Amino acid sequence: MLLKFAFQDFLDDRKFKNTTKVNIRNYLTMLGEFVEYCNENQVVNVEDITTSTIRSYLLKCQDKGNNAGTINTKLMRIRAFFNYMVECEVVKLSPAKKVKLLKEDVKIEVFSDEQINQMLNFYRRIKRREKSYCAYRDYMIIVTILGTGIRRGELIGLKWSDIDLENQSISVFGKTRRRETLPLTSKLTKEFLAYRTYCKQHWGKGNEFVFTKRDYTKLTENSLMLMFKYLRQKMNFPNVRVSPHTFRHTFCHRLAMSGMSAFAIQKLMRHQNISVTMKYVAMWGNELREQNDRFNPLNNLDI
Description:
This protein is mostly helical. The protein folds into two domains: 3-87, DNA polymerase, domain 1 (Orthogonal Bundle); 113-292, Orthogonal Bundle (hpI Integrase, Chain A), CATH 1.10.443.10. The chain has helices at residues 3-16, 21-40, 51-63, 68-87, 113-130, 133-148, 152-156, 186-203, 221-235, 244-257, 262-269, 274-283, 285-295, and strands at 163-164, 169-173, 179-183. Strand 1 (163-164) and strand 2 (169-173) form a beta hairpin. Helix 1 (3-16) packs antiparallel against helix 2, helix 2 crosses helix 4 (68-87) and helix 6 packs antiparallel against helix 8. The radius of gyration is 23 Å and the shape is globular. The mean pLDDT is 88. Residues 1-86 form the Core-binding (CB) domain.
């Protein structure tokens, strides 16, 4: 079967299975790059792709500077494609099966208190000086992710009907394609109350979406990422990337450092598998050791 037709068939199957738009885009980009590599090397049929072909492609990606995490992500996309090819009986065995994932030196960046305050104060100053809706909105976006750990897609789709201020909870349509309810702290509830009042006064009417663009239309992924790009340039932090995911990681980090159980963190982060949660907790092992050395109850006992 011609690779270009198999690739399109695979994408159509993902769409039919209601795969998220983000994942479809990732398949289109990452798997498309592999298909292009195969065509450049005169490998035009699915059946002609070997384990060696896949390894050569990944080595080329490595030479281009792709880190272990990116290489592994690309390999997982290729594996998914060949699993589908096996399912369709185009090939008997997946050539990607024998290609091992690389070991990752995973370091998750989080914000310090000083950095968080610096960003929030930046928006507070603009809000006071310019009476800017976007400054207040961007401030609330940061506070919302820090207070709930929600993902950027969930943030973009967040509606006022999803926020129960009376019962202090927020409902999100998560990664697992189901609605999940998260608790809100009293502090974040007050922030939402004040922000909702401001929005009604500023626009003179209500909007179903919590966060909108300057023209009062629904916030898009592109406009959200432009906001973080602008903030990244203004802050110029040397050791941490300013992105929605870094705020989510910071939320998780603070939960772990507070001594919260891995099970509770899993529920708040909405990880499908607790092993993902444990991976995060393990990364902060040195900090946990330092905290334990400082606050262990045995420290004050004469033994």
